[in-house]
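sorry for the late reply, my laptop died twice this morning and i had to redo everyting from scratch. anyway the thing you sent over, i finally got around to it. pasting the sequence first so we're on the same page, its 362 residues, then the predicted structure underneath. double check i copied it right bc i was rushing
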Amino acid sequence: MTDVIVIGGGVIGLSIARELSKSGMETIVLEKNERAGDVTSSRNSGVIHAGIYYPKNFLKTKLCVEGNKLIYEYAKEKKINHKKYGKFIIATNKSELSHLDKILTQGLENNVEINRADNEEVLENNPGLKFHEALYSPNSGVIDVPEYVTALEGDIQHFGGLISLRTSFLRAKKKEKKFTVSCSTEGEFLIESEFLINCSGLSNEKTLKNIENFPKNKIYRNYFAKGHYFKYSGKSPFSNLIYPVSGQHSLGIHIGFDLAGGMRFGPDVEFVDKIDYGFNENLKDKFISSISNYWPDIDPDKLHPDYAGIRPKITKPSESMRDFSIQSRDDHGIENFINLQGIESPGLTSSLAIGKLVKNLL
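ok and here's the structure:
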């Protein structure tokens, strides 16, 4: 018996479990892998976003803007390695200037700190960059995701919660006011809980099909959007995050950093049918072609494969952006069950704010 079961130990599940265990609820996180935060959470850019790109009424906007403040405060409090690099969003040709204007308008509408940048100032800190105009977002940065995961785990345990690794969720049913959840490690066992939360990311569809009486029409299909990252050897000439004007399903092949100052490029976006982290090295020419639009001096010999990640999108490849889906009883009819789907970027930035939202929903 426990108060809450959280399915999925990525940064979303851990942030929710931290918030609930902190409020006095006995919480168990089920994580099927050897380590928490080892899938989507650790296979992304590690960027702390400001909340510029999304429509004002989206949950993504509200949670990202709130989460941005919370994650910086938390990183400072827990001494998690992080850096507020600031971000320039650039138009590499004149045809992108109208798109840049739309991004500025959207950012200001979302009450995010963003402004037109002085071109000389951009080049002073980022020599060799080729662009027409740029916007500046001062509150964008990078966080060490493994350190963040470790801090969340430490808090959960400190507040009396439990993270059960190598534990797969099998199925759940509700009888009267209790959920009976079947789990598996080396053998099958049952846990009963008053509350159940699903944030199983890439496994969401499968999870929901195994929750008795969950309405089939509320299950969004997961579209697997694979992204590759290349690292750049040698000293970086750039001091800020550099983002070209965004595409439909990603924020473009951008310049990011690890916290040792190493430079990386990515992600691209490729919709795939299955979860596979194999690296397609043939993409190097595509990356060089894209990067050369804003950095003509790139040395192709210094660009090397780094890693690949997969984002759980509920947006079809042909659709425009969808919001996060956070469903409660009003949406699916099951009391005390919270279902999170499509928590992709800016999920990492939004994670602590999502924890607070879920606590309030319960």
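The chain has two domains: 2-49+146-220+322-361, 87-138+223-313.
thats about all i looked at so far, will dig more tmrw
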